[in-house]
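ingest -> validate -> predict -> emit
validate: passed (alphabet ok, no gaps, 206 aa)
predict: started
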Amino acid sequence: MEAASIAHAGGHAHDEHHGPPEAHRSSRVEPQLLGMLLFIISEIMVFGGFFTAYFFIRVAQGDPWPAPGTNLPVEVAGMNTAILVSSSFTIHWAEQCIKKNNRFGFKAGMLLTFLLGCSFLFIQINEYANIGFAPQDGAQQTVFFSLTGLHGAHVFIGLLLLLFVTIRAFRGHYSPEEHRGVEVPGIYWHFVDVMWLVVYFTVYIL
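emit:
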């Protein structure tokens, strides 16, 4: 009887787990989502470096912005901002549609998001072609092209992701149960939109 009690107690001691939980139990964030979040954090740091240069010119040196003789197309950039913000709503609509198995809405939302993103990038390139100054003209011009160009590069990467998702959407991929491949690019696209709002209000409005 005593031996059985000791064995029973030993079994309980063996079943108890001390220390941190196993890796697969403590990792509540999926690898794809975690990877995207870490990537976004690193990109925020990159943008932070360029914003530091921007504020150094405006605050530390006290230079007027934009530089004398330089005009920024605020109205065009504002229209472009509205286009990009609209794309956040369309991709959110697409995500909600696939969760409800509304395949038409999903495909329409992804296609609209891709087209809006292309429109934004086209307008920005056209803005560069007609803005009237070049990056090598001065520190302010360099910072302007660096910030907006860095964001434009992120838009281009986002468009590649959107194109991939859109093609898969029209091929019948994704479902209410399996749609992580839509959500992760969606998070990146929302980051691109929010970052542009920061760039727009900082560079064009302030």
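DSSP finds seven helices and no strands in the chain.
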